[in-house]
């Protein structure tokens, strides 16, 4: 991916812009070396070489629902991404190359699954709350394992007196597969209520298993520079695949620029999908500066 001619051109343009006194106007004063340099006219992508980071000016577009991305390009995947940015994905890729980051390989699904590979990228989100307080946290704090799904535990027989399938806020029992089921996060009060219904040991264990599994769990996966890929169009032009929206993914995609280093999907009921950690995310429309910091291979984490 690093040797692709189109990316070489992008990288050359990037260095040309950095070598000028100002990226967009000869009339503007020369910026200090420590000041992040905008790489596009709108200033949504900035490179800060002294601090080894790329800054992305983004906006929150989603706080609830299943996730495919942490960040997508404008008017692409806003219905399944927490953040959106008005900038081409190729420019973000070039900015990472400008910091010396090395792309790896996107996920492979056939003939067998191979997880994405690439240099680890630390990602932080920065925003100002309504009281004017600045916040900076790892992006993982905004993502959790999906809770808006069914959780299950084995149960050979449903104990007498335990009601099931009587409404949305009730247990369900799959008699064919011998499974006790519950949808969504189980509260402490619900757990206690269900435990009081029967002293059967297997049933008690099933309730406790479901309760533990259904609690909110922050994503722990690392982000890696997979590098996306190129498609040759009918007119011979090369199209950078991440322009379709896959800038920073939390579900594995073969066109992901940045992906997670684990197996993940947005359509899975077995605990491999993610959703926004809603309580930790500011309201939709909040401006957020995303930091991308490539880590060296020998960096201790």
Question: Can you offer a commentary on this structure?
Answer:
With 301 residues, the chain is α+β, with helices and mostly antiparallel strands. It folds into 2 domains: 5-12 and 36-144 and 219-294, no CATH class; 150-214, no CATH class. The protein contains 4 helices and 18 strands. Strands 1, 2, 3, 4, 5, 6, 7, 12, 15, 16 and 18 form an 11-stranded mixed β-sheet that branches. The chain has a 3-stranded antiparallel β-sheet with strand order 9-11-10, covered by helices on one side. The longest helix has 15 residues, at 5-19. The protein starts with a helix and ends in a 7-residue tail after the last strand.
Please outline the helices and strands.
Layout: H1 5-19, E1 37-38, E2 45-48, E3 53-60, E4 69-73, E5 81-85, H2 89-98, E6 119-128, E7 134-138, E8 143-145, E9 150-154, E10 172-174, E11 179-183, H3 188-195, H4 201-214, E12 223-225, E13 230-232, E14 238-240, E15 248-249, E16 258-260, E17 274-276, E18 287-294
């Amino acid at each position: 991916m690093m040797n692709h001619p189109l990316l070489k051109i992008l990288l050359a343009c990037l260095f040309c812009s950095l070598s000028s006194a100002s990226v967009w106007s000869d009339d503007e004063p020369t910026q200090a070396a420590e000041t992040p340099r905008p790489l596009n006219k709108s200033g949504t992508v900035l490179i800060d070489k002294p601090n080894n980071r790329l800054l992305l000016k983004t906006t929150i577009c989603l706080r609830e629902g299943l996730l495919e991305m942490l960040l997508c390009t404008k008017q692409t995947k806003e219905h399944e991404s927490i953040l959106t940015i008005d900038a081409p994905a190729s420019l973000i890729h070039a900015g990472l190359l400008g910091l010396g980051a090395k792309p790896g390989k996107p996920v492979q699904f056939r003939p067998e699954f191979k997880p994405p590979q690439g240099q680890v990228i630390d990602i932080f989100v920065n925003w100002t709350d309504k009281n004017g307080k600045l916040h900076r946290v790892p992006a993982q704090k905004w993502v959790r394992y999906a809770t808006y799904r069914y959780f299950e535990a084995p149960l050979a027989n449903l104990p007498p007196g335990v009601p099931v399938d009587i409404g949305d806020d009730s247990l369900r029992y799959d008699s064919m597969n011998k499974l006790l089921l519950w949808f969504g996060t189980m509260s402490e009060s619900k757990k206690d209520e269900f435990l009081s219904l029967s002293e059967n040991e297997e049933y008690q264990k099933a309730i406790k298993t479901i309760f533990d599994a259904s609690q909110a769990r922050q994503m722990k996966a690392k982000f890696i520079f997979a590098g996306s890929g190129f498609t040759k169009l009918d007119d011979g032009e090369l199209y950078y695949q991440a322009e379709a929206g896959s800038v920073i993914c939390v579900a594995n995609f073969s066109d992901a620029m940045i992906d997670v280093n684990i197996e993940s999907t947005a359509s899975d009921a077995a605990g491999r999908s993610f959703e926004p950690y809603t309580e930790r995310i500011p309201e939709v429309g909040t401006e957020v500066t995303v930091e991308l910091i490539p880590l060296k291979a020998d960096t201790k984490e």
